[in-house]
Amino acid sequence: MRCFCVFVLPDGVIGNTWAFGAHIPGSSPGRVGLEISVDGFFSRQEQMSERVAIILAAGVSSRMNTQMPKVLHEVCGRPMLAYVLDACRQVDVKKMYVVVGYGAGQVKEQFSEAEDIIWVTQTDQKGTAHAVMCCQEHLGDFDGETLVLCGDGPLIRSKTLETLFSMHKKSRPAATLATAVLDEPAGYGRIIRDMYGNIQGIVEEGDCTAQQRAIKEVNPSYYLFNNKILFESVKEVKPDNVKNEYYLTDVLSIMLTVGMKVVAVTAVLPEEALSINSREQLSKTSKIMQRRIQKKLMDNGVTIVDPDNTWIDVRAQIGQDTQIEPFTYIHGEVKIGRGCRIGPFAYLRSGTVLENDIVLGVFTEIKNSTLGRSARVRHHSYIGDARIGEKVNIGAGSITANFDGEKVNQMTIGNNCYIGSGAILIAPLELKDDCSVKPGAVVSQENVDNFGKQGEVNVP
Ligand code: UD1
Ligand code: MG
Fold this sequence. Notes:
Bound molecules: uridine-diphosphate-N-acetylglucosamine, magnesium ion
CATH topology of the largest domain: Spore Coat Polysaccharide Biosynthesis Protein SpsA, Chain A
Shape: elongated
CATH superfamily of the largest domain: Spore Coat Polysaccharide Biosynthesis Protein SpsA, Chain A
Low-confidence stretches: 1-33, 35-41
Radius of gyration: 28 Å
């Protein structure tokens, strides 16, 4: 059956609107002659279909002033898109249709190992509704609910997505969206409600009247749609706006105009709504993410003496009762055991593994190295590409020389070794257990072989 649809839907939901002929100045539902097959729309939807999401990530992002695809810019060590994908996975989304365009190859390469991503290409970036339309061939016939999110909102929380799913299930509207109330709403689409609180539509900042611009309730772009209605409605979007783009936000007015129900729940925390359109927003978002990372670590028993002056990568793992002193910078996949003291002014880079009870002091840089239990590297040292045993003491100013100008070489230092101050350890090198290196020594494998009785490396 094909018909012009007017649904009779359950009511009693805060912020729902149905049989409402919305015309919002600035939004562009255009002429709506929406024809949708209503056969079993909702009955089939009730049977649990798997959760899917469309994630919009094709934009050029002129405001970022970048050559790199925006969604690859990192927030605390991971591309912003990774957080959005993870939030979906946490609410059991099985398939993610990621729309890519600008820099598509780079984006795909970064996420090439993810088996739950289906890549969709949007060759010309004509707007968010057009990006959704590009998924038609994959999802046009899908009988279920589709989450639609933007790849530039990494502060998204899975808890909010769960709220979206449960609100949607309760009242089975054509669309449920989560909104936020911001003190500074500039840049976001504004939520227009009628005097009863029912949503009437969304107006983009550039299309707002002065009165609409003063509205503080905004659209963070978290939507859950009845999939078939979404794909029927999105075809009706017209680019009648200042940017001449196909706005996804217009599908809501289109749905409302033909009498469908749209639910808007104010469920997004102000900080979570922050999306990244500029370098300034990138740094603001990173700061918020950093606070979240540090809070989680502190909840897990890590002491962070001065959170404002410490930076920890989201991929880092830190054990209980470890203390991070100020001005410590932990970047990349770093594992730190229990009861360690790190910093002040320590720099830990990717591939660093510190076992328990380790002390790293001022101006110590560790890269791609493992340090055994109770090792001490207290002052002004660089350790790179080394496997260091238990209870090793590296004296002040000692360094590994791991790069010979062409390649990086590995080094092994056994248990209980004592490296005096100011030593230069030239890789490739192997020092057996219980070695002692005199202060100021320049130690190569050749020196060790010629002079080094195990127990003392005494270099001329
Ligand atoms: C969008 C919303 C706005 C909301 C804001 C929240 C629209 C029209 N506006 O605005 O209501 O307040 O997000 O963050 O949807 N993209 C594509 N293809 C395109 C255009 C964009 O994939 O043709 C992607 C971008 O890569 C980005 C996302 O869609 O990840 C959002 O686009 P963006 O230009 O950032 O939209 P906003 O202006 O932020
Ligand atoms: Mg944006």
